[in-house]
Fold each of these.
Amino acid sequence: MSTSTKDQNILRELARRVAEIAALPIQQETIALWKALNSLKPVRAMVMIDQIPWHEMDVDGELTLQTEDAFCRDIETQLRRTLYSWKHMRADMVVQPFVTIHKAIRGADFGVRVIEETAVTDPRNSVVGHRYIDQIKSEEDIMRIQVPNIVHNEGATKQAEERAREILDGILEVHMQGALPGFAPWDQIVQWRGPDNMILDMADRPDFMHRIIARLTDAHLSMLSQLEDKGLLGFGQGTIHCSGAFTDELPAPGFDTQRPRARDLWTFGMAQIFSTVSPAMHQEFEIDYAARWYARFGLGYYGCCEPLDKKVDIIRNLPHVRKISMSPWVDVEKGAEQIGRDFVFSRKPNPAFLAWDTWRPEAVEQDLRDTQEKCNRCGCPFEFILKDISTVHYQPQRLWEWVDIAMSVVK
């Protein structure tokens, strides 16, 4: 498919601006800082933001798309968001000299569809309320969980690559990215069953729940093997679950760009619905299964919104974990004491600060400095990863100011 002159000119101009930024020496300086943190020898704490309510962020048309073709609009979105972030909320982002195009990989389907009812408060916001309908009530229902059949549409991938290279020729490289899988089976199960049914059955029908998680774990591992065998895994991660992923420890010896292996990559995982589950149950139903997944990867990030300050001991049973999420609901001091110097304390500051009716920057700074003080006291490498930002009250300047405050704290 040909690209109109108008669309191509728009993308090439945006690409030139991104390329100029990517060539700045500060990019390599920031990569070096991420590598130091990820090797547990930080120069300073690092700051990153992700999962942004982009529908609230446009200022003076900076994010308004001007291309018409759908393929071009995807690239334009990537370029405009990069430029916007660099201008307004840079933090410790790294701008790289390429555009990422994802390979046409299909079939990562486990056979069970989500059936739900949703509640919407802001029709422009993709964050909605969910009520899930239980679909796995019996032993027979467990058999509905299927092993994915991974298929690569090589023609579609080649067409996308050729078109992107033609548009951006001589300005930015095109990075054809493969799959970068994570392991969050309980986030899937809770959508298939609903939280109440799932949690109650872990106590009342533990064998039943073990059969569910065992079957789904086997399916995930089969999917991973297929991706690996077919040369469809990605490589060169700049981020891992919203955090900087730059490291000198990956890829592993013997790396081949045409056939990346799991051990060349970071992975991530979580069991967010386990917030109210005891450490013993968390170990039994999650860690014992997740260990099989993490064992195959080079490095790992564990956790998301679930509070893990009282569960660091069991996370130590996961192979190759380097970063542990510390959500807004943890006891920071307890988490820092448990982590010590052994992992990166991946602090998730509370995004609710950005959603209040009244913006209170002093509360943001106090929260960040509290984490900094307690991590420093424990000799704990740490980072600030602001994510799950559902709203900034339609005041994007709040997020810009949050970044300024965070960078002043860590520097």
Note: The first strand starts at residue 46 and ends at 49.
Amino acid sequence: MYVLVVDDNAELLELVVTSLEREGHRVASLTTASEAMSSLDRSTFDVIVLDIGLPDGSGIDVCRKARARGLSTPILILTARAAVDQRVEGLDAGADDFLAKPFAVAELRARVRALGRRTGISAARTWSHGSVALDFPKRYATVEGREVPLTAREWSILDVLASARGRVVPRTRILEEVWSDGDSAAAASLDVLMTRIRKKLGSDAVRTVRGEGYALA
């Protein structure tokens, strides 16, 4: 997906952009409301991540103006406050979702993916390699045309790997995305499930890059 991120906090902006790029998204970043409006006139995005507190205006105003111009792109509002009245104002302005600061990067990525799915956009909806085929929306896996049952957590792991579009996904990111934890128990579970996935789909379906992580073939 092509994601626009608008936030004037340089450190947070870099964190969000880097995180989304690692997931395989193309990301544009801006720091002001005026830049955002200008960019929306020139470019088409799949999802917009928009901070409320911008130096030259409110993200809610940007959202309202964008909707008034007929923009239908899903918008995720970032806010330092989770007050009900602010959420109502944002929803009335046309926002699709809210995320209060501070937030977990894994949750931000999940919300961006969810907004993309609402409009039929996703980092990866199907994947195939040799005789193996995965259909993520249907949660349907086949090997040589025969259905192979996968657990919900196995699907979650494969979804994270598929979203990277062939790039290596660090173990720490898989633990963060699937378990929201990186303790020894979660790490041991990941090892067990990776072994099961390879038994079900074939040993070459997922490759291990020592010292880095995993990637789909």
Note: Residues 2-118 form a domain with the Rossmann fold fold (CATH 3.40.50.2300).
Amino acid sequence: MTGNLFASPDASNETNKWYTAHCDGGSRGNPGPSGYGAVVQDGNGRVVAELSEFLGIQTNNYAEYSGLIAVLKWANKNGAKRLRVVSDSELMVKQMQGKYKVASPVLRPLYEEARKIARGFERFEITHTLRGGNKTADRLANEAMDKGMGKTSSQPGSKSSGQQPASTSPQAARPYGKLSTSAEGRVPPVSTLRPGNQPAPPPKPARQIFEGYVKGGVVHLLEGDLPDGIFVKIIRE
């Protein structure tokens, strides 16, 4: 197919020829345990496939592209001629649309594979949605990560932030630099103290990873806002 790969929807009444796929990918740690999920509907809105896979230690963007490729391969194998893909990864969508360049040597082969398969369809579209519009795919991605990590329940919100769920243990809840006392007013056992009965130094705060890009010397985040008063180290993926 040599025409416009990302053409606008046609005005015909043949909507039942279009398949629609919502795909999502995530990583707990970025990079960390990762997986993708996808749900495919036929032209009548019936769910015809649910796809998911644990990918091992990968980044969010790697998982997003893996989910897209899984959808493209399924649609191609099952005879779909027209395919709409919906994803909450603005980076991947705009790269596939040709609006962003793909500089990452890791993502480049995935991008090229996805473009190659997409060209085989009669019509192909890819659009961006907020995460709320991708709930089923997000659930499947989290279930894939849970399964790969040996867990039995999904962890919502594990995508993109790169942060691990906060610990709920009493020790983690104690304020830094202070000693908690028991109900009787006794200090914890001496094993929790440093020589000279000085409290141990607080642990270093967890590193946060945000996805975005730099344009004109300004950092632009794809999701959320950059907190005040922090140092930023830009890592090219």
Note: The two ends are 31 Å apart (CA to CA).
Amino acid sequence: MAVARTAIRDRGAPEAGQDAYRRLREGIANGQFHPNERLVEASVATSLGVGRTAVRAALVRLDQEGLVTLEPNRGARVRLISDREALEIEEIRATLEAMLARRAATRVTAADLRELRQMVVEMRLRVDKKDALGYSALNAPFHQRIWAAADHATTSRLVGSLKSQSIRLQYQTMLRPGRTERSLREHEAIFSALKAHDPDGAESAMREHLAEVLETLQWAIDGQRAPRWLPG
């Protein structure tokens, strides 16, 4: 019986670790955990209802992604990414993702296109429902499917790491009025170019999309700097 209980715990450990990682990552993205905030394993484990081993594994993964900084004998802190660094990250990401879109246009399969089409349909439904959060949740899978179709593991890994590091500010870009509608049109243009197996068109559409992302990120940053006036 003890062996059986141990086996069950072992099978559950990866799930607990994945859950802790996902919830911590979302907490950093939506501002629940602030830049430079210390993440104490015991406290985080209690708040998430998981074991310290799961939290430790999640923190190591987030450190590798650049979202937290592990400090020897002091635990972990949410990494502070400056506004300038966030903008530089997006500039680099735009160049790399444009390359991936170009490669994907010549390698995309029928299965890839079916999945991308379904994501675009779901995105349109979210826009119609004014569900910005739901729309945002579909964004990463859409891009990741293109990375997979491009079949360039090194670039995909680099882009994924860059995207993770600026996730806190990316979360705020969805709040810009009209952004989801424009983003939908940009994703539709990318999909159309991929469907046509048009490398130039796919690269151009991705560049235009990420130029808008960069401009919207600057908007979010400027909004953070603006003075907050209380009503008189």
Note: The chain has two domains: 2-78, 83-225.
